[in-house]
Design goal:
Rossmann fold; binds NADP nicotinamide-adenine-dinucleotide phosphate; 295 residues; 43% helix; 11 helices; two-stranded antiparallel ribbon; 14 strands; alpha/beta
Length: 295
């Protein structure tokens, strides 16, 4: 089997590469066909996904069986400042990727986000709930979903949220840095979601990619919390003495509106490949333990 990873130096792309090299992760081994797969990685400097002709010829040349499409414009406030660019990278470029996949008969795994929802529900979003994005990022990712489904018949949409891993910038790293340099940090307590260890996400994406069960999936850490509770657990597990205090989003205005509640339901994932997504506290503890071992 031949796999192509876009955005391969990003947070998720790096973890997918790691698991393909290792043949699995703490959650289990990869299916045999994936463990022996040949993977090709592409990053911005090698292939700009916004260049339709380049995408088409690259995919034809590599002739993958599966494309794991992780490249995206992920700066939510940056998307609000430049919605046209967000649409080009997160929406239109997905059509190029999907068309190219269809051309060579490849499966497409497109990673999407909780931002496709309005964020005003009070229970977990189901995969078929109405998408009413409130931000430029959310609208562009929804447009990417629609293009993936319209142009490639073998598409998996995998929505995730609140990602952290070893590679790149994320909330866990930010809180650890702040906790090391101050006595008090204040974190918003009125936005709820699912913290997700990128290791758990990458593993389930690869399990899905080995099936023919195309469709929309939600793949996030188990359990719901707010950012303040997430930060407090990061500080507690890392042993820093820093105090963490809750505050309201209104105190920290940001360009893009954040969803107030965006927990995602896993029933579709459970039915397709089983739901081994760990409770968020357990996945976080494992991550922080391993960060400490790496120091
Ligand atoms: N991070 C989260 O909390 C989160 C939550 C929900 C969903 N997601 C989705 O999960 C996926 C992976 O996220 P991530 O956290 O791994 O993102 P990331 O670390 O920001 O990685 C994205 C990668 O895409 C590359 N890229 C950007 N524009 C490109 C272009 N025009 N052509 C080729 N490559 C381009 C970036 O390269 P450069 O670094 O060189 O720009 C980067 O390597 C994305 O689809 C994102 O929307 C993320």
């Amino acid at each position: 089997m031949r796999l192509l990873i876009t955005g391969s130096e990003g947070q998720l792309g790096s973890e997918l590469k790691r698991q393909l090299r290792a043949g699995g992760c703490v959650l289990g081994e990869l299916p045999r066909e994936l463990a022996g797969a040949k993977s090709f990685c592409t990053q911005f400097d090698e292939l700009d996904i916004c260049d339709e002709a380049a995408v088409d010829s690259y995919v034809r040349e590599m002739c993958p069986d599966v494309v794991l499409h992780c490249a995206a414009m992920t700066d939510v406030d940056g998307c609000e400042e430049d919605p046209a660019q967000a649409e080009r990278v997160n929406g239109t470029a997905v059509r190029y990727i999907a068309q190219a996949c269809q051309g060579v008969g490849a499966k497409l795994v497109y990673v999407s986000t909780d931002y496709v929802f309005s964020g005003d529900k009070h229970s977990a979003y189901m995969t078929d709930d109405a998408c009413v994005p409130q931000t430029a990022y959310g609208r562009s990712k929804r447009s990417g979903e629609e293009n993936a489904l319209a142009y490639c018949s073998r598409t998996f949409i995998v929505r995730t949220a609140w990602l952290y891993g070893f590679h790149g910038k994320n909330f866990v790293k930010t809180i650890l840095r702040k906790a090391a340099g101050s006595d008090l940090i204040r974190v918003v307590s009125d936005q709820y979601g699912n913290p997700t260890n990128v290791e758990d996400l990458a593993y389930h994406m690869l399990l899905l990619a080995a099936t023919e069960r195309y469709g929309i999936y939600h793949c996030t850490g188990g359990g719901v919390c707010n950012w303040y509770e997430f930060a407090r657990e990061i500080v507690r597990l890392s042993g820093h003495g820093c105090r963490v205090e809750p505050c309201a989003s209104a105190e920290y205005p940001q360009k893009a509106k954040r969803p107030a509640y965006s927990a995602l339901d896993h029933s579709a994932l459970e039915a397709a490949v089983g739901d081994k997504m760990r409770p968020w506290q357990e996945a976080l503890r494992d991550h922080i333990d391993r960060l400490e071992e790496m120091e």
